[in-house]
Amino acid sequence: MTDAESVLFTGSWQGLTYDAMVEGTQYKASYFKGDLGHKFWEDLSNALGEKVSKRSFKEAIARFQATLKFESPQTNFVPKKQEIRINHYVEHPILEKIAKQEILKPGSLLRIKGSPKMGKTTFLSRLINYGQNKGLRGINLSMSLAEKDDFSSLDKFLQFFCISVAQMLGLEEKFKEYKWKDHPGNSKLKATSFFEKYVLSENEPPLILGLDELDKLFECECAEVPGGFLSMLRSWHETANINPTWGKLRLVLAHVWDYTDLDINQSPFNIGIHLKLKEFNDSQINELAQEYKLKLEQDDLDKIKALIGGHPKLINLTFQHLSSQAETLDEIIEKAPTELGIYREFLRQHFSILRRDNNQELYQYFQDIINTQESKKMAS
Known about the structure:
The chain is of the alpha/beta class.
């Protein structure tokens, strides 16, 4: 756990607000609310096997404690054999080399695509850290931080976007000084002007702007939000070819799906460099097993791959439990499809997606597959 994560965890355990927990420290509340907090709660969710937040993590730790029978004289929540820890990272050498080269180029745009929980956030965070070590600024804004009201109109969303960027860069006062409502022009012009004047000012180094969970844009009811925002990003990227100010902006978009319904001349999904994160191969799975100091036979690895393939999150989760010696591999496999299994939160998330109104046909197909005793051909 880093120093910042320790402050965040301790303060949250004590029920403090973000503002209160950063008093007397070098950190800003906006950092805890944004990039750090989002990644920390995701990592803790992975470690506990269920989705947690600042409000719900205590109960989740209690459930985890009951499952593993924790013992610790110092705290009530640290396991006897292994502390809750962040997932080990398995490198993607070719993709990382390409990304690191591109991110240093003026006006670059990268698209990181992968299925849910494939490591996009971690890949993006490492890329930003690399850029920062090279003298660039870097922030990662997750669309999951936007609330329902922020998605109610393009103007409100772009205010959320600019305020979030301003907070992460320590430009809150500049945003207040900008006076959004009094500024002339439509909302895209206002956002563009704010970036030109303050975010990309000539006195500042280039900025890596990571936009994580971009798919959230397409879940909102206001259709103008995704189209308006994404067309603005494309315009910024294209302007970098003729305007050095915009060359200071390097965009990194992390998403699950491709969106072919967007105007091809206004979409950022058909330009820039496309990097796709895939499941771990055998070599990467073996590498991760070594990181966890696990001595697994080939038969064990074959069982794991037959159950969950090479899914990064699920492989990490499996190895965490095996290394803690809480359960044997056979016990994990036996409980895998049940509410007692370590993959329960992952399964719940996918089931909730199936139950959405726009997925009813897919849900019915899924039910048919479960209920049939024979192979069944489904329409594509």
